[in-house]
Amino acid sequence: MYKMHTFENSTWDIEDDEQALILNRVGDAIALFNAERRLTLFNDKFREMFDLSADWLSQRPQLADILDRLVAKSFWSAEQRNQVMAHCDEPTLQNQAMPLQQANQTYLELLVTNTSNQGQLFILRDLTRERQSQLQLAGEVHRLRFLLGLTEKLQTSDNLEEIGKFALNYLVEAMGAAFGDVKVVSGQGKNRVAGPLTNQISGQFIATYGKPAIAAMETVLQQGVKYGEGLLWDVVDTGKPMFVENYAEHPKSVPGFRHPGIGQLGIFPIPSADGSIIGVVTLESRTLQKLQEAPQQDMLLAACRTLGAAIERAQSQERLQRINRDLEQASRLKSEFLASMSHELRTPLNSILGFSELMLKQLPEDAPRKIGHVKAIRRSGQHLLNLINDILDLSKIESGKFELDLENVSVQNLCRECLSMVQPRADRKRLLLSLELDYRIDRVNLDARRVRQMIINLLSNAIKFTPEKGKVRLSVTLAYGSQLLDDFRPDDSTVNVSTPYLCIAVTDTGIGIPPEKRNLLFRPFQQIDASLTRRHEGTGLGLALTKRLAEMHGGTVSLKANTAVGSTFAIWLPLHEMRHVAPPSAAPVAVNQPLSGPASDCEACNGQAILVVEDQPYNQALISEVLEMEGFAVDLVSDGHAMMATMNSELVTDNSLPCLILMDVQLPGVDGLTLIQSLRQHPLWQSVPIVAVTAMAMPGDRDRCLAAGADDYITKPIDFDLLLQKTRQLTQTPAAD
Is the pTM here over 0.70, yes or no? Predict the structure, then answer.
């Protein structure tokens, strides 16, 4: 134990070894200087802290000499020495601590206190441990902020490059790297390429080696590193990081990166969720510490894992976008195909149904065999038309272009109407049709046309699959969700047991549904018996369309379980508003009235002329005959160019204009929509009413025709009752008696 050294004129008089022992036990270094700034007192801690000789200190050196020796021993810098001298000369700094960081990474705190005899007391406290703890805490906080920020980026940002740049900036700083980059692996097998996601090059590196060298390195990055080139593929294949002391001299280094400015290199794998390597992080370090020994390894590995999750998510989103684009294209091609097929099929069907209707009106009653043949033609054509309509309806629903036309409807009248429509088919098989009504419910808000379509589908199936002399019952009841739970349903939608439903059920005594075949129900183009020898015609669209229409109403469909013979199909439509008192219904509208007979003369229409723009000869003949039977005069134009010539002819006057134009849309030369737009802009023709008559029956076709300037729209095959009704409305001509 060193004793305290005492000198004359000391203001701090230690008289014995016991007092010296007490001062030596103080943890801080202590030195006392007199008014002439000579050392008069010090403890062992002061001598040991700076490795000073006790003999030299006992010679009472000046403060300046002591500081010079600390500089010579490389404890302090010359600048720190001057700062301490200035600190001692400044009275206002009394009792203010001065931080000092020594070259040996020791952190000190100097406190200078003036004594009563104009001397100064130096107290030097070693804060290295506290400082290291603070730095470790700050570093941990910094790392945690980085991890939190990286996690937030991953959750909130879809920009993979932004996430990679955020991670790389931190890693370059934390690892003391001159530059770094993130590469993502794409392709399969030997066709893989590691392309750059982002890179970071320090300004010092650019300033030292120049922009041309950096540009050459970035060019190599942008081209990507092919499989087998460079060291990174060893990391991808093994999943283990690689460290290289001298990359420029390594035989497997990428030629464009063999730069003398590159020091030690670390290549770190970016793993995916299944452990495969989908990218690498490359860092170049200039510090003496090896990258594999850096304390930031945990952050580096965490960043690589997060980058892996971000890359996988970005790749998944890219795959989904590509799949969506393919699905959109497939949907568009399907819509184009259906539109084309609709036109191609409806055009000949128009002639088949129209001419068969005319033949039935003109055949004598004493030719039953011919009448039966013509009715078979008409029935087959109508069946084909119904199939086309079902396909188009299903396509509209799937494309999201299907809208309900809700109105307050009497369900009881609707059901009676449906039964009357299928009665002839039931009579041919001698089936007993019955109707059961729940008089607690009558008027409901629904789309009458679509609900009628659903009921007809179920009744038609029941009649088709029920043998002769069987029974088919249509029932309408007020039911609740709890009654639906035991039925077989094609979906797993949640059912609220207390929700009131309008339940429309069709029960038959037909062939029944085997339990193993129920999963085939309600799927498009699926039937219970799909073999080549099946006895029942159809495409399997009826139940699929019924299901989708029920879902459009917010409801569902079901099949009664445990039915050994026959089946019960039900439509469940939720009742959002119960109506006990029904308002008076509107006047009934006649449905499917036959064409009126030929007029005896032209008095009914006053000989008005209708211009028919149609390119198909059969349709020309059919439309002309129907209109002439009603007493109209018919003019024909067969293509778009001829119509343009007619419109611009100088021979046309106000008195010679037709009273109505029936415009086909798909015409050779100039299409009907262009002709309609031209007619609406022509000063002479713009007032003539126009009805678009077309086989275009896809979603949006009606709106396009009306937007072009048509007054109305009729699809092919033409409903001639509807055509004559619209013709009379637009020409203000009364119906012929």
Answer: no
